[in-house]
Design brief:
heterodimer, A: Rossmann fold, CBS-domain, B: about 600 residues, 4 domains, 2 strands, about 80% helix
Chain lengths: ~350, ~600
Amino acid sequence: MSVVEVDGVWKIFGDKSAEAIAAVRGEGLGKAEVLDRFGAIIGVKDASFTVEEGEIFCLMGLSGSGKSTLVRHINRLIEPTTGTIRILGEDIGAMSSEALRALRAEKIGMVFQNMALLPHRSVRDNIGFALELRGKDAYHRAQLADHALETVSLHGYGDRLPSELSGGMQQRVGLARALAADPEILLMDEPFSALDPLIRRNLQNEFLGLSQNLRKTTVFITHDLDEAIRMGDRIGIMNDGEIVQIGTAEDIVTAPADDYVADFVAGISRLKLVSASKIMVAVESHVARHGPIDDAHDYPTARPEDDLDTLVELSTGTELPVLIRHDGGTVGIVTKDTLLHGLQGTEAT
Amino acid sequence: MSTTAALIGAEPREVESRDVSVPVFADRNAAYYGSVFERLQKGELPFWHMNLAGLLIPWVWSAWRGVWLMFWVSLALDMIGLVCLMQNFKYGPLLADAHLDPSANAILIERYTRWLSVYNNVGIATLILGRLLIGLQANRWYFRQYSKWRIDGHTAHGVVARRVLIAALILVLVAPITLYRATQQRIDERACFNQVRAIDGTQRLLSRYGVTEVSDLTSALADRRDRLVTERATLEASASLTDDQKGRLAEIRREERQLRRENDAVEDFKAVSAKDRFDCLFIDDFPTLARIDPPEDVTYRRVPDEDAIAQGRSGATKVITQVKDPVEGRTVNIFTYTAESIDIGINFLRAQYAGIFDALTNVLRQSLIRVEVAFMLTPWPVLVGLAMILAWAYCGTGTVVFVGASLTFLAVFELWQIAMQTMALVVVATAICIFVGLPVGIWMAKNRIANWITEPILDVMQTIPSLSYLVPAVAFFGISQPPAVLATVVFAIPPMVKLTALGIRQVPQSTKEAALAFGASERQLLTKVELPMAVPSIMAGLNQTIMLALSMATISAFIGAEGLGAIVTAALGDAQAGKGLLAGIAIALVAMVIDRILKGIRSSLSRI
């Protein structure tokens, strides 16, 4: 069972949303025409995806592509115009407001781009906020909060005010607040976008480490493809409210679904992304062109899942192609030509 | 939400599709304006550069080219000059008469002659210098308009004849009547009213005598007078009169008097020239000459209800209504009518709901007495010590010294007890302000309709002169402290409400969203996020409220509230400047002491 299931969700801002949806479905109207004809704005257009347990799912898109709107559907901060969202198998559209509040406090933690900490509360009280809302007593609240603080390596800062901390530390507090109630799901709305590059990288690494330990199902929003590739097990790319492609970083880089995605991934370094299996040439075609493989030579070998970085490492210092071996057999061959084309992202001729 | 805002981005404007060259903008004479604009941009245009059309025909030129600012400025300058010159027509004939009259006062003649020459000089100077200014500025204004037009294509450009037509209409509407007004003496206010009366009276007479022409009416009146005179002469000639005849004689005399009045009215009417009528309707005060019958003069009184008392309900009362006969022929204007209606309404409410008002007055009086007792019976060393400790704990040494000095001032001038009375009033009023203002402020922040209703009411409460609602306050709640408290609340509550609402509205949307995302209910959102974050704003509102309440002390003394204000009011009545000043300073010191201490507490509590 998937932890988060989003199925056919539309969000249209405006009074004539039903007509607008019908028109978009029937006539394939664009954003501008919908605004013209119905005075309605398309926030999310027919979005469907699932997130499995422990997975980090990145939603990536430029500002205004609807990713923040979409993620707010997952805890129903925004009501979908149509479509269903299931959390742990339960349809949240049908929940009573009390059940919804319990879900938000206990099952879903959220981290915001601008931290959104409460300035009048100490760090500890900020972190214990969700617990306090559920009526947890002060003693246990403080314990859990201190535990969460330790998780984000901010031990001992519990009695400070948020304004006393730096931006990076504040975002750690934001993360600790989301983790304090030990929720199953984390929603991260561009959590690191407002930070400077060094701190951002630090926090990304830390979060990845945390994530490996805690195995939280995470929906991670970003407008930065590099970040999406670093963080995401899978990536969904959004454009104008629509999810145009979902797949692993490698899928998206090697087989972009349309020009928009292709444009996006054009400048991305493929070294760590693309695996040998994507570029290797079948043994037969290699033999047909270059002659048989001479077993006398000591060929460098790699596995199909090794990335291009590894292949470059292996290819330097030898004129021989790299054999890709799997289960004891050679499944493909990567020559220097193939490797260079693979790095460039073009087909070998 | 940022996402939706970003979706409605500004479309890039297609400037390329629009020709923004000078020829398109100026239309006629583009070559001239092109070179002028160029030189202007290069800074090569000499300061004496002049647009001849602007100098000679500024109204036409500016309207034709749509430079409306210049049109209005040139119109205003020309009108000022001409109005000055028009004084010749106003005083010229009078002066000519006075010169012929040997008994005229020579000093006055000289003074008016001097005035007239000043007017003439100013008028001519305004006309010439004004035109020069317009001529110099014309092209510069025109260039500014060109720059504006390049940004916004809807700005007036080109040459349009219709605009000249509009300008001509404006001129026709403005110029003749203004210049005519400048030649006329001020009209007697009474004259216009008499005019209306004469016209109305004559209309009535015309219909009574069944004639249409005023000349017919004159002759009809003359006929009637002749008949009456003849009849009287006959009666008076006879030696002895019967009672009937005596009665008839008296009646004739009455009729003759009536006739004389009617005659006067007709004469007045004939004397009304078309010019007088025009003057009254258009150049004097706004001609609202409507007169209506006054509202029925009703008095409501609550008296013991004898019937009910007889049935055993002791103390029962009822409202009785007394209607006074209207004064014969009294008509009032709309202002008086409305004011009297309000009086009657207040009177009715007071009598009908006496129980409610009395109960409210009683509650206020009792709570005031309690607080007053608390302040006045607490020994002064305790209060002084308390104030000093608060100042010491929350503020700096400077404030401690100031508080000490202020309290010494009150003590030395023997104003302590009186100041405590003022404090009691302020405390009760402030408490009411908090209990009412806080919920209203929250409601206002949360609900747009509430905001829409409350905002203008608060503005009125803040700006309406306090003296004007002291009168109804007295009508409802009697004199002395209770109405003073209510008047103070009316005056002091707006900042409390407004700053509460402001503080809550200022809580960032993202913070509220975060709270909701962690499962806050509406109530938790208010108590755990919005109110705590609004505290600084609310405290500022409280501070303002206290200051305003103190400043009302003097005003409420007018209706018998005791305290420092009463000294000021009394001093005003007796023209004792020193007494008033000292009491006023005492009020200011009390206010500043409270303000400083509150500020100290506020800043040491605030974590934001």
